[in-house]
Amino acid sequence: LPQDAEFLTDMLVEAVNWDPGREPLSRAQVLAEPTLTHYVSGWMRPGDLGVVACAPGPVGAAWLREFTAADPGYGFVAPDVPELSIGVLPGWRGTGVGRALLRELLCATDRDRVALSVERANRARNLYLQECFATVAEGPDADTMVWRAH
Ligand SMILES: CC(C)(COP(=O)(O)OP(=O)(O)OC[C@H]1O[C@@H](n2cnc3c(N)ncnc32)[C@H](O)[C@@H]1OP(=O)(O)O)[C@@H](O)C(=O)NCCC(=O)NCCS
User: Fold this and answer.
1) φ, ψ at 46 (rounded to 5°)
2) Rounded to the nearest whole angstrom, what is the distance from the C-alpha of residue 124 to the centroid of ligand 1?
3) Whole-prediction pTM value?
4) Which residues, 6+ apart, have CB-to-CB distance to 140 below 8 Å?
5) In terms of C-beta density within 10 A (0-12 exposed, 13-18 middle, 19 or more buried), how is residue 54 classed?
6) Which ligand 1 atom sits closest to the C-alpha of 125?
7) Residue whose CB lies within 8 A of the most ligand 1 atoms, among 8, 119, 127, for a mutation test
């Protein structure tokens, strides 16, 4: 829903700052960076799809957005292949929320494919592999992965 934009931005900040060994970017820094803020700006736009986990307040979110070749996401594959973003509040990680969000979103989408970019050292990569994402491109530090509906 449009009113989820704030929480999605919180989860974008969590996703950007997944590595505890790195200096975290503030919310303002994330919002000032066009290659990051375009994952949530103007939520929701046509083609956007998201799910929020509530307990009862929001504790995690996963969402899809389509990009263009002119303004691609990190995991850009094609304009009709939306890119996944996902984040769970730190206190709720490792309890099944992320996997449930991912499954719900993949059930809800009508797209044949979903793409994402994940840094190779991020444990989230294991989750994607377990949920049938396959690596389609390898960058120096990050992989592009794609899920196909079957
Ligand atoms: C990645 C993330 C969304 C997974 O959600 P979660 O609720 O913690 O995950 P689940 O409890 O459903 O566990 C599913 C898998 O996620 C991975 N995982 C579990 N805890 C994790 C943690 N603290 N950090 C990263 N990945 C984790 C594991 O691979 C786990 O599978 P396993 O238990 O078989 O090893 C969540 O940990 C998170 O928000 N991490 C920081 C943000 C981030 O990395 N986003 C993705 C950027 S590409």
Assistant:
1) -55, 135
2) 5
3) 0.97
4) none
5) exposed
6) 29
7) 127
Is the distance from CB of 114 to CB of 146 less than 8 angstroms?
yes
Length of the chain: 150
Residue 140 phi, psi (nearest 5): -60, -40
- pLDDT tens for the chain, 150 residues long, are 889 999 999 999 999 999 999 999 999 999 999 999 999 999 999 999 999 999 999 999 999 999 999 999 999 999 999 999 999 999 999 999 999 999 999 999 999 999 999 999 999 999 999 999 999 999 999 999 999 998
Question: What residues does ligand 1 touch, defined as CB less than 6 Å away?
Answer: 14-15, 18, 86-88, 93-99, 118, 122-124, 126-127
* Alpha-carbon span 15 to 33, nearest angstrom: 14
Cα(94) to ligand 1 centroid in Å equals 6
